[in-house]
Amino acid sequence: MSKRICMFNDCANVGFELAKGLRSLGFEVLHHRRSRGLFDKTIRLAWTVAHSKADLYYVHYALQDAYLVSKLKRLDVLHVHGSDVRWELKESLWRWMIRHNLKVARHVICATPDLPEMLPSYVENYSYLPNPIDTETFKPYHNRISSERNSVVFLYPFRYDPKRKGTHLFIREFERVKKPNWKITFVSGVPYHKMPDLYNSVDVVVGDFATGVLGKVALEGMSCGRPVVTRVDPKYYNHDPPPVVPLTNLVSMNDPDVRYWYGKAGRDYVIRHHEHKDVASRLVDELKTNGLL
Question: Could you tell me the residue ranges of all domains in the chain?
Answer without folding.
Answer: 4-132+275-289, 145-273
